[in-house]
Write a structure and sequence with these properties.
Layout (H helix, E strand, L loop, with lengths): L8 H8 L6 H25 L4 H8 L3 H8 L7 H11 L11
Helix pairs in contact: 3-4, 3-5
Length: 99
């Protein structure tokens, strides 16, 4: 039986979405960052044993906003995000810029 060689992730994305710098790839990258943020918030909430409603109440927002954020909300105000993480989840927000 012949084994298939695995394609590196970057090559796979280049083929399926397009090369870096193309409009389609830029949209993909932006959407992926929003998806990662939602997953991180959901994981942090679950690790702390909190419901979406509890996080919303603690952070001064509503359950539907937390739900949308966890499911890929693209536009979130920095101040709201910071409040959700610090007050709602009891965490600390760290930001970095990478090139």
């Amino acid at each position: 039986m012949k084994k298939k060689s695995l394609t590196p992730l970057n090559e796979f994305i280049d083929k399926k979405v397009g090369k870096k710098g193309t409009r389609k790839r830029d949209k993909f990258e932006t959407d992926y960052e929003a998806f990662k943020l939602g997953v991180l918030i959901q994981q942090a909430r679950q690790e702390r044993g909190l419901t979406q409603e509890q996080v919303a109440e603690l952070s001064g927002t509503n359950k539907s906003y937390i739900s949308k954020l966890e499911k890929d909300l693209k536009d979130v105000r920095f101040s709201t995000l910071q409040r959700i993480i610090t007050e709602g989840l009891g965490g600390h927000l760290e930001i970095s810029i990478k090139f």
